[in-house]
Design brief:
heterodimer; A: two-stranded antiparallel sheet; about 75% helix; B: mainly alpha; Helix Hairpins; 4 helices
């Protein structure tokens, strides 16, 4: 049974939410409650299949459900031909350690968001469209994270940008959300068009769209370099790396909270695109002896961008008055930490004088692991904070921190969730943010102490910002207008609880997660030849 | 030889004009026109890649024989056009809503009203 599902799992993970999305309006015609149940079931089913798929790829050989499907840690799914067709000319889903790691994230976030929406969206109109778009977004995100075909990647990228722009503008009667949606769609369309342009350049050179085939034959000539720069810049724009981050706090802040949580997943999907392009398609060229200086220089450029991103995020978060926009800037800073880790890892590249092998040094490896781990942690922590901000908005219809206060008296569970999110996002022990940030601090300290100092300092500033928010929104005197405020509905609490449980679990057993999920992902990331061999 | 370069020059021209419109025009509709120009540029690039001199459309049933142009980029272009239409429709509908709120499409005036 499992074997049957697992054979088609990569296709099912995209097909189920996609079909669900188109069925949602129909189910919605029958009954609103039935639709909510239907959407939760579809998302849960998707998460279950994704969990099976990831487990089968990441688990040790002896405990896999279907070891035959996974060769060299990679499961390949060829559309329309079973295993007999020539994969080069077909659409291929190639799931390796990195993909398996990313799709875990893409499975948790929509599940939490959909459960949360049940209560959060209760009084809104147009819920059938809302759930349809959420499911489309989930399908696009999962497709983006699994596809082995560059053009397919572009298509899924566009699906996510269209769905998220429509969702950001969900409250069309608010002029700011429409504006944020417009900014988002302009940025992501231009980004996607440049991705397509780069794909066309690569196609013109190598007559292939398959990532593995292109990676195998890449020459690293002038046109390839142009394609590399276009791809990285366009995807960095979509991932919200400074100086192209301006759309991100707007979009995160103005969208309904449950939507923001899913959009965080797509942003990290774009970040995954950068990793795939940098480490797999151009991997053997960048990490090679002839381009050693180029690789190191690229690493330092990334480090510079990362420091800039962290600074901008933290400083802008400090002066924000809007609850959700502030978390948006904190999210920018968190993305900076990931870029810092990956940049630092590239900057430690060296050539062994005895064996002549080029590679990333051991502190660079810790940085890679820390960065990879932080992708997961950042998504969970920031999402939890957004859900809390949404809960506060739900009861008070107020997002300005100046007009909030004393909510802890009436909303004790939400307050507890906020404290957990606060501790996790600012990297305090014992929660998950600490585990990954410690790895980043440690490795960057070995590379250059100043980097680690800046990173720690910014983390402390982030803590200060959130403590300020905690005081402004939850503590303080009881405000008369919030006299009758009640705790949010159960479904919203469950949505937040899902994320909190994962956060606490990772916080308590970081080694378990690093060993079983993060390390295979990092190994797969570095092993471009295995990915090429998967076809 | 020069004649072969013209489509590529047109691609570069379309993309640059489009980028100019997105970055420097103040009217939202003109920004959208800029985006569609970039899109046309990229689509033209894809089509140009597949074309060889003297080739015919890749349709077997009524082919006069001789070389055919490569069908894959044409399929890609078709997909890209469809996506482009969806994005264009969404952007225009957002602009309609922006106009309803601000009664203007001028970026500067919108920004002034926000502050």
């Amino acid at each position: 049974m499992f074997e049957q599902i697992l054979t088609h799992a990569p296709a099912l993970a995209v097909a189920i939410p996609l079909l669900g999305a188109f069925l949602t309006p129909l189910v919605s015609k029958i009954n609103g409650k039935l639709r909510n149940v239907f959407v939760v079931i579809i998302t849960a089913l998707t998460s279950f299949i994704v969990a099976l798929l990831s487990y089968n790829i990441l688990a040790h050989e002896s405990v896999k459900f279907a070891p035959d499907l996974v060769k060299n840690g990679i499961q390949t799914y060829i559309f329309g031909a079973g295993s007999a067709g020539d994969p080069v000319v077909r659409i291929v889903f190639e799931v390796d350690g990195v993909n398996a790691f990313m799709i875990i994230l893409a499975a948790i976030l929509p599940l939490a968001a959909v459960i949360y929406s049940w209560g959060f969206m209760k009084d809104e109109t147009g819920q059938d469209k809302y759930y349809t778009l959420i499911l489309l977004l989930t399908a696009g995100m999962l497709g983006m994270m699994m596809t082995g075909d560059l053009f397919n990647f572009f298509v899924f990228l566009e699906i996510t940008s269209i769905a998220s722009a429509a969702l950001i503008a969900y409250r069309v009667n608010n002029k700011f959300s429409v504006q944020a949606a417009f900014k988002y769609i302009v940025v992501s369309t231009i980004g996607a068009l440049f991705v397509l342009f780069a794909i066309a350049i690569l196609y013109g050179q190598y007559d292939a769209l398959n990532m593995a085939v292109i990676a195998k034959s890449i020459q690293y000539g002038l046109l390839d370099k142009i394609a590399l720069i276009l791809l990285i810049v366009a995807l960095a724009m979509k991932a919200g790396i400074a100086p192209m981050h301006m759309w991100l706090p707007e979009a995160y802040g103005r969208a309904p909270s449950s939507v923001t949580v899913v959009i965080i997943g797509t942003t990290l999907g774009s970040f995954y695109g950068i990793l795939r392009v940098g480490f797999t398609i151009f991997g053997e060229q960048i990490i090679s002896e002839s381009n050693l200086e180029v690789g190191i220089a690229l690493g330092w450029v990334l480090v510079g961008l990362a420091i800039l991103t962290i600074f901008i995020g933290v400083l802008m978060a400090l002066k924000q008055n809007d609850f959700k926009k502030m978390i948006g800037f904190a999210a920018v800073a968190e993305i900076g930490y990931m870029v810092l880790a990956f940049g630092a890892a590239l900057a430690t590249m060296y050539q062994d004088s005895v064996t002549g092998i080029t590679g990333i040094s051991s502190s660079g490896l810790t940085a890679l692991k820390g960065g990879m781990f932080h992708i997961l942690n950042d998504a969970l922590d920031v999402s939890l904070l957004f859900l809390v901000a949404g809960a506060v908005y739900y009861v008070s219809k107020e997002s300005s921190l100046n007009r909030l206060g004393g909510l802890a008296r009436n909303m004790k569970y939400t307050t507890i969730f906020f404290i957990i999110g606060l501790v996790a996002v600012s990297g305090l022990p014992p929660l998950n943010g600490f585990a990954s940030k410690l790895m980043i601090y440690q490795s960057t300290y070995e590379i250059n102490p100043i980097l680690a100092i800046v990173a720690i300092l910014c983390s402390i500033l982030l803590l200060a910002t959130f403590v300020k928010v905690f005081y402004a929104a939850f503590l303080g005197p009881k405000l008369p207008k919030f006299e009758n405020v009640k705790e949010v509905p159960k479904s919203m609490l469950i949505g937040m609880l899902v994320l909190t449980c994962v956060i606490i679990f990772i916080g308590l057993f970081p080694n378990l997660v690093v060993e079983n999920i993060v390390t295979p992902a990092v190994t797969a990331l570095q092993n471009a030849s295995a990915y090429i061999g998967g076809i | 030889m020069m004649a072969f370069q013209i489509p590529y020059l047109a691609v570069a021209g379309l993309i640059i004009i489009g980028l100019y419109a997105v970055l420097f025009k103040r009217n939202l509709i003109k920004m959208i026109i800029g985006i569609t120009l970039i899109e046309s540029g990229v689509n033209l690039f894809l089509i140009t890649l597949s074309f060889r001199e003297g080739s015919t459309a890749p349709i077997y049933t009524s082919s006069p024989g001789g070389p055919m142009s490569l069908p894959v980029p044409q399929a890609l272009t078709l997909t890209s056009i469809v996506i482009g239409v969806a994005v264009l429709a969404l952007m225009l509908s957002l602009v309609i809503h922006i106009f309803k709120h601000y009664k203007t499409l001028d970026v500067r005036k919108i920004r002034e009203e926000d502050n």
